[in-house]
Design brief:
GO molecular function: ferrous iron binding; oxidoreductase activity, acting on single donors with incorporation of molecular oxygen, incorporation of two atoms of oxygen; zinc ion binding
Number of domains: 1
Keywords: Metal-binding, Oxidoreductase, Zinc
Helix content: 25-40%
Family: Belongs to the DODA-type extradiol aromatic ring-opening dioxygenase family.
Largest sheet: 6 strands, mixed
Number of strands: 8
CATH class: Alpha Beta
Strand order of the largest sheet: 5-2-6-1-8-7
Shape: globular
Cofactor: Zn(2+)
CATH topology: Protocatechuate 4,5-dioxygenase, Chain B
Radius of gyration: 18 Å
CATH superfamily: LigB-like
InterPro entries: Extradiol_dOase_DODA (IPR014436), Xdiol_dOase_suB (IPR004183)
Distance between the termini: 15 Å
Order of helices and strands: EHEEHEHEHEHHHHHEE
Structural class: alpha/beta
Length: 291
């Protein structure tokens, strides 16, 4: 057992071009990966935004021993094709056991191929070698309380040396992005105009909920954001918000009171997409050997 629970990250993965272009967010992902390795993580558990399963109370765990990677648009293949994924089936079974014990209808998916929302982050965090990793699906009903409970069920893994990451988006509405600079000039960071007021308003509400709440209050604050008057403008679909609820579950217990999230990096893309990077908790001051 770890002396302290491992930190938890909520990362906004942004567009596919975040894999190919340099940014402060990419720098921060690398820093987080270096710290995780220095502190001897056993593996990584991730919930992304691009995989969900249907059915009441159902959740799936990726158990494909040799997953492929879905292609990434607007990124040269050299950035990801040769990166070897490291699915952790033993960790996957631990996740299944914890989820089923907590009342979920959890099952293994032995054919799931990994998508850029997760392996983009892994490549940026761990460019030399992918750590043992397990991916958890979302549920297509997109119930906020359900996804918060998924994170809560897996919280014990933090006390066993595993790193929990949610990868979605702080503000992620593809319909309201400004695509022309990226499509014409491959410039995803062009900012010809300021972001819309709706994007700025929800981005601030998202940060406020994270940095001003801890423990169960964090879970309530993140859940309430789906009732924010600007939520539907900031998230035309719910999929990229579920990872935030997953994170709130994983770091929102009574034991987590006093552990506040911090905004460490932020990258605006396509004018209106806000890629905010948050971390909850800190590593020990005495790094140990890597995995």
């Amino acid at each position: 057992m770890s002396a302290e629970p491992t930190p938890v990250h909520f990362f906004s993965h942004g567009s596919t071009m975040m894999l190919g272009e340099e940014s402060t967010s990419a720098d921060y992902w690398k820093k987080c990966g270096d710290e995780a390795l220095a502190n001897g993580i056993k593996g990584v558990v991730m919930m992304g935004a691009h995989w969900d399963c249907s059915g009441l109370n159902k959740i799936q765990v990726a158990m494909n021993p040799k997953p492929k990677k879905s292609p990434v648009a607007y990124v040269h293949p050299s950035k990801y094709v040769d990166y070897e994924l490291a699915p952790d089936l033993e960790l996957g079974q631990k996740c299944l056991d914890l989820l089923n014990k907590d009342g979920f209808d959890a099952s293994a998916n032995e054919s799931f191929d990994w998508i850029h929302d997760t392996y983009l982050i892994l490549i940026r965090m761990f460019p030399e070698k992918c750590p043992p990793t397990t991916i958890i699906s979302a549920n297509s009903r997109f119930d906020p309380h359900f996804h918060m409970r998924v994170g809560a069920a897996l919280r014990p893994l933090r006390e066993q040396g595993y790193l929990i990451i949610g990868t979605g988006g702080a503000v992620h509405n593809l319909y309201r992005n400004v695509w022309a600079p990226m499509l014409k000039y491959s410039d995803n960071f062009a900012q010809l105009t300021p972001p819309g007021d709706w994007a700025m308003d929800f981005r601030q509400a998202f940060e406020d909920a994270i940095v001003n709440n801890s423990g169960p209050a964090l879970r309530r604050a993140i859940t309430r954001l789906m009732k924010h008057p600007k939520f539907r403008e900031a998230h035309a679909t719910d999929d990229h918000f579920m990872a935030a609820l997953f994170v709130a579950g994983a770091v929102g217990s009574e034991q987590d009171k006093g552990v506040y999230g911090k905004l460490w990096a932020e990258t605006w893309e396509l004018t209106n997409m806000c890629n905010s990077q948050f971390t909850f908790g800190e590593w020990s001051k005495a790094p140990q050997a890597v995995y």
